[in-house]
## 1
Amino acid sequence: MPDHDDHIQHTWILTHPTGDEVTIDLWTDGESVRVEGGQGESTDGGRKDVDRLIEKYCLRGYWVTAGYEVNDPHEPELPDDRPDGCPECGQPCEFVDLYDSGTAEGPAWLCTGCRWRVWSVGI
Ligand SMILES: [Zn+2]
C-alpha cells in the first residue's frame, strides 16, 4: 500500500472487539472503493458500496471508530480548447463530457444560448 493518500477522498476505520481493524477508502474518483484488512474487497461502486461494506462489517461485530475526509473529490479537468464564445450568438460555451449529436458521441463544447456545438479534443 502506498504511503501517499492523494487518491483517497474519504477513509473509514472499523474496529472489532478482538482488535481487528478494517480500513475502507473511497477514492477521489468517487467510484473506487478499497478495503484494507477484512476480506480486502475492492469495488468501483462508490459511496453506496461503502455503505454496504460498513453494514456488512458492522453485522460481524465491527463498529466505525473513525471516518474522515482526506482529499476533495476530483474535479473533472476541462480541456483547454474552450471556444471564446459561440461564433453564432456570442454566448459562453459549456463542456459536455459525452455529447450525443445523434450520429456521434464524444466530448464537446455546447453553446449555452443556441446550442451550437463543436467537438473537443483537448484532454
Ligand atoms: Zn450560440
## 2
Amino acid sequence: MNEPGDSCRRCGACCLQGGPALHTEDMELLIASHLVLAQLITVRRGEMVVWPGAVTQTPARVELVKLQGRGGDWRCLFYARQTSGCAIYANRPLECRLFQCWAPDPLNRIIGQGTLTRTDLLHPDDPVREFILRQEVQCPANRIKELAPHAQPDSAALRELENLVRIDLLIRAQAMGRLGIAPKLELFLFGRPYFIMLAPFGIAARETNTGMRLALNAPP
Ligand code: SF4
C-alpha cells in the first residue's frame, strides 16, 4: 500500500478512488468544453458514497456531479494507467488541483461546499427537469439506507425497494423516450439506476416477465 510522503509520487491512488466532484469554479471547464455532460455522473443526495479521506460509505449530504469512472469502477475516466497521468491535467477540476495526499486540509475544506448539481448545468426551460424532480420525489435515494437493512425475503421493505426500482426505471425510460435524450447522458441526468445502488446491501435485481424482482444474495 502506498503511504503518503511530502510530494506527489504519481502513484495514482487519488485518481483510482474516484473522479472529483465539480464545484462552481469548474463551471468554466464546461463552458469551454474541456468537460462535457456525457463525461459526468450524478451522485444523488442520500446515495451511499465514500467521502475523500473516509473508509466507509455514508449517505451523500448533498447532490454531487462527478467525473465518471471507467471499466465498471470509480477509477477516473481521465486517468491513464500506462503513464499514471491525467489526460486533462492542464484543465483538471478544482478538487484535483487542491488534492495533496500528504496535506489534505485544502481539499477537506471544500468537500461538499459550493458543489454543482445537475440542475445547475441544465437550461432553466429544459423539460428533463420535470423528470429529475419526479425521480427525487417518487424514488429518493435516501430510502435505500432506511429500507435495505430491513430487507428480508418477502418483507415489506424488499417490496417497497422493488417498487422504487421500477419507478426509477420508468422515469428514465419516459424521459429518454419522450425527449429523445442520448443514452450517454443518462448517468448525468439520473445517476446510477436504483437497482445498482442496492448491490452493496446484498440485494440483487433480475429481470422477469412481470418486471424487475429483487432478492437477497446468499451469505458468502
Ligand atoms: S481529472 Fe485527472 S487528476 Fe483529477 S481524478 Fe481524474 S485523472 Fe486524476
